[in-house]
Amino acid sequence: MTENRIPIFDPTVEMNTEEGKLAKRVSDLNQKKCGLLWNSKIGGEKLMHFILQELQKKGITPHETIELKKEYDTRPAEEEMYEEMAKKCDFVITAVGD
Amino acid sequence: MIEPIEYKESFFETVDFYHKKGWTDGLPIIPPTKEMIRTFLDSGGIREGQIIFEVPERKRSVEAEKIAINAILAGCLPVYMPVLISALEAMADPDYNVHASASSTGGAAPLMVVNGPVRPEISLNSGTNFYGPGSRANASIGRAIRLVLINCLGAKPGLMDRSTQGNPGKYSLTFGENEELSPWESLSVELGFEKEESTVTLLATEGPHNIQNHYGLAKGILDTSCNTMSSLGSMSEGQSFFVFSPEHAKIISKEYKTKQEIKEYIYKHATIPEKKLRETGKIDSAGWADQDGNVRHALSPNDIFIVVAGGEAGGHSSWVPSWSRRRNGVTVTKKIFSPEIRFSQTS
User: Fold this and answer.
1) Nearest C-alpha of chain A: how many angstroms from B131?
2) Rounded Cα gap, residues B85 and B83, in angstroms
3) Rounded to whole angstroms, how far apart are CA atoms A37 and A69?
4) For residue B171, which of B203, B145, B136 has the smallest C-alpha distance?
5) Could you write out the DSSP letters of every residue in B246-314?
6) pLDDT per position in chain B (347 positions), as tens?
7) 10 Å Cβ neighbour count for B284?
8) What is the DSSP string of A29-85?
């Protein structure tokens, strides 16, 4: 009997968890071309360079670093920026900081 | 048709269940029924299973029935659905940037300005106390937006909503322009819509900043407006709304016949020295100033939007700035459609 009872309806929406296709992983980061994608906020730059320093402490020294800055911190990077990174970099470090 | 996930014995048990699940904004809800969901879908001109709101950054697609459920929970009437659907369309526009504005420490609220004949049809307040309590449409349409953000986009406070302080407009910041008492063309007409068309305009914003001036003439009120706009606290370039009270609008319009003249006056005079911004740590580098060393909130006069709202008496207007810097979030306007037109668009 449900006549006199109050129904509950789920108002939520689940995230689509279908996995995207990952790029091929680089087995060894040492002496590779490293991209640094900055979200354009001061905390982001600090975090990004901190991660690079931590890698260097572990003996991972990039052959070259290429720094790119997003035009807007809260929006995705421009398509051309992704293409440039894909063309020039073996791996990319990005950081979201306020 | 969507089915209930379970049943409860009493009204209070039901309301408590929604609270405990984190499905509310803290206020009690109206429990939906299957019949109500059907009515709300019909009133919006939308069909079960139809995707209404899609945000790729959040990997979420929101179907019509979820919009209806959240609208009912928020206390909406079925007749509000066309406004709500168009507001969500505006929010889904990449220009609005819902992903960032709903999660940013800045604590943005969706400012929603409604124009056109739909305002009296749904008794949307554009007069006395329009920001405050007293109108079901103003309170519940904005609340429905908030519940959709919480429940369908995962914008739960402390999780994907990281507002440092938030702002009270996050409960609802919805009103109609008081077109009847405006001496200028309405926002929607200014944006190219017909007077007979209804629209909703959204911008992710801070809360309203008071512009109080009881004795000034046009220049005095505009200078007070400029001073409000160029305060240090909110100085962060981008779009913003001036919401002039009918009294202020009447006085200003004696000397400024068009909105464009006002925008240009404000753009010229609402400035702050770049030096001041650097001294106070608001910016950490030079290069923002004009040739006179000044910085402006607006990037151009067209970054300034002007609407009229409020009761007939009182020297109180307000300035509502964008939550974001520059173009991280911009104003989006969408037309509001009747259910019949909505249905015909998907048949």
Assistant:
1) 27
2) 6
3) 6
4) B145
5) HHHHHHHHHH--SHHHHHHHHHHH-EEEHHHHHHTTS-SSS----TTSEEESSSSGGGEEEEE-S-SS-
6) 789 999 999 999 999 999 999 999 999 999 999 999 999 999 999 999 999 999 998 999 999 999 999 999 999 999 999 999 999 999 999 999 999 999 999 999 999 999 999 999 999 999 999 999 999 999 999 999 999 999 999 999 999 999 999 999 999 999 999 999 999 999 999 999 999 999 999 999 999 999 999 999 999 999 999 999 999 998 888 999 999 999 999 999 999 999 999 999 999 999 999 999 999 998 877 778 899 999 999 999 999 999 999 999 999 999 999 998 888 899 999 999 999 999 999 87
7) 8
8) -TT-EEEEEE-SSHHHHHHHHHHHHHHHHTT---SEEEEEE-SSTTSPPPHHHHHHH
Tokens of B38: 């059907």
Separation of alpha carbons B106 and B166, rounded Å: 7
Please tell me the distance from the alpha carbon of residue B124 to that of residue B121, in angstroms, as a whole number. 8
- Counted residue by residue, chain A has a size of 98
Greatest Cα pair distance in chain A: 72
CA distance B110 to chain A (A): 17
Token pair 């320093």: residue: A53
Coil, strand or helix: which one is B54? strand
Look-up of token digits 């300035």: B319
Whether complex ipTM tops 0.95: no
- A contact test, residue of B36, B40, B60 with most A CBs within 10 A: B60
Instruction: Determine contact: A79 vs chain B, CB below 8 A.
Output: no
Burial grade of B340 (CB within 10 A; 0-12, 13-18, 19 or more):
exposed
B 259-318 residues with CB < 8 A to A: 284
Q: CA B63, CA B1: separation in Å to the nearest integer?
A: 12
B32 and A9: CB-CB below 8 Å?
A: yes
**Residues written for chain B:** 347
Pairing between β-strand A33-38 and β-strand A91-95 as defined by DSSP bridges: parallel
Contacts of B347 (CB under 8 A, 6+ apart): none
Contact indicator for A75, B100 with CB cutoff of 8 Å: yes
Q: What is the 8-class DSSP label of residue B242? A: E
How many helices (DSSP H) and strands (DSSP E) are in chain B? 13, 13
Q: Are B184 and B246 in contact (CB under 8 A)?
A: no
